[in-house]
Design brief:
This protein is mainly alpha-helical and 153 residues long. The protein has helices at 2-18, 32-35, 45-58, 60-63, 94-103, 117-130, 144-150. α3 packs across α6 (117-130) and α5 packs across α6 (117-130).
């Protein structure tokens, strides 16, 4: 019984130590050449659905279902995973996100050998659906396909 209490206390302390914004405390910039790379995979319903399946298999444990960096494994990490739903994620190019997924940064692993290039681009397309628009943003007129993909997660 004491061991269970000690383990639960450690998890609780770790979650407070990381705090709500710990995942954004240290900026992670992709090289300029990576930021200029365009996404060769169309962000359509098919690629977003495939990206979601990959995300759920590879990323949810740390980044959480909605990309907030609050997955069940996040509390045990020394650096909290980034909140992929933050409006500032819109400032990162697809190429930058692809580079980060490809290369990783401790504790996030590199996915270069775990996923194909195509799969990593699909994950980028899915991550884009997690980002909430900034407050007061003017939404552009959407196509039926864009509206359908927004409601997929």
């Amino acid at each position: 019984m004491g061991g269970i209490f000690l383990a639960a206390s450690s998890i609780l302390v770790a979650s407070y130590a990381h705090g709500p914004s710990a995942g954004m405390a240290e900026e992670w910039e992709a090289p300029a050449e990576a930021t200029r790379i365009g996404n060769p995979v169309a962000a359509n319903q098919r690629s977003i659905t495939a990206g979601k399946a990959i995300y759920q298999g590879q990323c949810v444990a740390c980044h959480g279902n909605m990309g907030k960096g609050n997955g069940p494994a996040a509390v045990a990490l020394e650096r909290r995973p980034s909140d992929l739903s933050m409006p500032m994620m819109r400032e990162h190019s697809d190429g930058a996100l692809f580079w980060k997924i490809t290369n990783g940064r401790r504790p996030m692993p590199s996915f270069e050998k775990l996923l194909t290039d195509h799969e990593r681009w699909q994950v980028v397309n899915y991550i884009r659906t997690l980002t909430v628009p900034p407050e007061g943003a003017v939404l552009r007129k959407e196509s039926k396909e864009t509206t359908a993909t927004r409601h997929m997660h």
